[in-house]
Protein 1
Amino acid sequence: MEDDGAQKADCILVLGGDGFGCRIVKAGQLAEQGYAPYVLVDGPRMLMGHETDQTIAYAVGKGFPASLFRAVPLPNPIDSTSEESEYVANNVLRPQHVHKVLLVTSNYHTRRAARILRRAAPWLAVDVVPAPDPYFKFDGWWKTRDGKKTFLFEWMKTISEWWGD
C-alpha cells in the first residue's frame, strides 16, 4: 500500500470502480478539511448512466455538498486504470492546468494506480491517500473469501500491467 499522506493539491481525483463509496467519502473528507478545492470523480458508463452520477449522489446523501464534486464520465470503451489515467490526465487535468493531485483509491489499489497515473502524466505531482475497503484488510486479507479474491485480482492486474496492459 502506498500512502503519501494528505497534502495540499489542486484537486482530489477519485478513480472509478468503488462499489462501496469508500473512495468518495474519503475524498469528500479531505476536501472539507481543505486539502483541495474540489474533487474530480471519474467512472465508466453503466446500465442507468455513469458511475459518477451514483457516486456523487451517494456522497451528497452522506452530507457532502454537491458543489464539492465534478463528474468526469469516461467514454466507452475505457475499462482499465491505464486507459482511465490517460484519459483523465490528457482530457481533464492538463486542460484545467492541474499540477498536483491527491489520488484517492482503495487501499489495495494505491501502488498500482499511482504508478499508472504517474506514467500517464509525468508532469503531474501525485500524492496517494488510501481509502479503506470493507473487504480488504492488510493484516488479514487471507482470512476472508473477499480478501483473497481482491488480493488475487489486484496481482493479476499488476502482472497484466507489467506485460503491457
Protein 2
Amino acid sequence: MILSTASPALAPGGGLLLVAVALLLYLLAALPLAALQRFSAAALLGGWALHGLLLVIDIAGIGLRAPGARLGFAPVLSITVWLVIAVYAVESRFAPLLAVRRGLAVTGMLAVGVMALFPGELRPITSPLAPLHFVLGVSAYGLFGAAVLHALMLDATERRLRAGGSAGRLQATGPSAFGMPLLQLERVTFRFVEAGFAVLTATLVLGVLNTVHWRWTDHKAVFSILAWAVFAALLAGRRLRGWRGKRATRWLYAGAALLLLAYVGSRFVLEVLLERTAA
C-alpha cells in the first residue's frame, strides 16, 4: 500500500492539524442540524480553503527534499472535488443550491481523508510541458465533475416535474428545488461539458507533444481518447439531433466514467491494488 510517512498531510504538527480542521469544518457543513444551518455555508467555505492549502502542500511536495510534484489517484481526485466545490461556491451566490451543500461537504471530507492516506509519489518534472499538461488534465476533471453535478440536479428536477404533472411543467422556467429553473440548469450543464471538452482536447494534444510520457497503447491514453470520443458524440448529438434529458446525461455519465478510469482509476489499481508506483 502506498502510504508515505513523509507526507506533509500525515506529518505530526501543522499538517495533521490542517487535515483535522478541514475534516471538522466539512463535517459541520454536512451535519443535518438546524442549529448549524446558518453556519454551514461558512463551514463549507472554510473546509474548502484548508482543503486547497493541503493540496498545495501535498502536490508541491513542500517539506520534502527532492524537487518535483506529487502525483497519484488521490491528489487528482481531491483536486476534482475541490474544483467542483469552488463552482458551487460561485453559483451559490446567485442561487442557494442548499440541497447539494451537505453532499458536497461529505464528498470533501472523503477527498481530504483519502488524500491524507494516499498522498501520491514524488515525480520529477521531466518536460517543460508536463506542468501545463497536468493543470489542463485536472481542470478537465473539474469541469466534467461540475457538469456531472449539474446533470444529477437536472435529472432530479426532471423527475420532480414529471411527478408534478401539469403544475410541475410550469416550474420549467421558475426556480426548482435546487434554486435554478430547469432550462437554466440544462444550459449550465452543457456549458461545463463544452468547456471540459475544449480543455480535454488541449490536454490530449499536449500529451501527444509531451512524448516523454505519452504512449498510444497506455491505458490512460486509451481511456482518455474513449472519453473524448464520447463527449464529442454527446456534443454532436445535442447540436445535430437535439439530444436532451436522460439520453444526454447518460452520455455525459459514460464519458465521465471513462475519464475517471483514465488516470484516477488506473492509478488506484497501481497504487492500492497492485501496490506499484511506476507510471
